[in-house]
Specification:
Length: 284
């Protein structure tokens, strides 16, 4: 049977621009060069002055193993609502200790600002979002705007600032995360990140703790955490929220009943609606 129909164009087409090198860092034992990659879910080119806000996503993995593409199938929902989504590779703690991961994240943000026209990205609406160890990254980005000691590598004439931070069950203080975890199975990740046990290296722990940097210039935060998280204590997210409020930083904390660490509950439309509502309030 033959059909002739009219189709309303109600949404943009999307491209996946995958595994783009955004910077190069020392590789094997400092003797080689390693590419760091990002993948971009972007909109069909409009050939006008259209600009889209950008969500940078940092996957978890205890700073031990990460895959910058692993959540892109879920995050396409944000692209459908008018965002560019960037999955960012960052070095794990087997390759570099903190603050190397933060330096990588800031390099990715500078790369996107330097190439904003290519992707039709709005350089004034950049969002840091991530889960677990990647949530720690999002928080660190949200509290370190303007701290140039973390800007290393390429595109240094561009800012690494973000305009909002959204940690999903993110690590806050490595020490209290280690001490407050119901499980001891992941205690080693904090030693690997810092190069020492957090309880014996207070300076290193403080340097990797977002609470250290919170001030009145910190960007708005949306914090999400599950009440049944046995890996990253929910009390740490509550402390981050309290610290933000104490410093008059706009902040929202959503505690999801019954949700565990890396729970599928966080990828549900209801949660994404909360994120989109928050971003509309602070980016528009």
């Amino acid at each position: 049977m033959k059909h002739t129909i009219n189709i309303d164009k109600v949404r943009d087409g999307l491209w996946l621009d995958s595994n783009i090198t955004y910077t190069q860092v020392p590789g094997w034992l400092g003797n080689t060069t390693r590419d760091l990659k990002l993948s971009v879910i972007r909109h069909f080119q409009t050939n006008d002055d259209t600009q889209y806000p950008v969500i940078f996503w940092f996957a978890g993995g205890g700073w031990m193993d990460t895959d910058h593409n692993v959540h892109l199938p879920n995050l396409v929902d944000f692209a459908r609502h008018g965002y560019i989504v960037v999955g960012v590779e960052y070095r794990d703690s087997n390759k570099v200790q903190f603050p190397g991961q933060l330096e990588d994240a800031k390099a990715a943000i500078r790369y996107m600002r330097a190439n904003a026209k290519r992707f039709q990205a709005d350089p004034n609406r950049f969002v840091a979002m991530g889960e677990s160890a990647g949530g720690h990254m999002a928080s660190m980005l949200g509290v370190t705007n303007g701290l140039t000691q973390f800007d290393k590598g390429d595109n240094l004439k561009y800012s690494s600032a973000v305009q909002a931070a959204i940690p999903f069950y993110g690590v806050v203080d490595p020490l209290t995360a280690k001490e407050g975890s119901v499980s001891n199975d992941f205690d080693f990740v904090y030693r690997n990140l810092l190069g020492a046990e957090p309880e014996t290296a207070p300076d290193l722990d403080s340097a990797a703790n977002p609470l250290t940097y919170v001030n009145a210039n910190t960007v708005p935060f949306l914090i999400l955490h599950g009440t049944k998280d046995v890996v990253v204590p929910i009390k740490d997210s509550e402390r981050l929220y309290e610290k933000l409020v104490e410093n008059n930083v706009p902040a929202e904390l959503y505690e999801i009943n019954g949700a565990s660490h890396m729970d599928v509950a966080f990828m549900q439309p209801e949660v994404f609606k909360i994120v989109l509502t928050f971003l509309k309030q602070y980016l528009d």
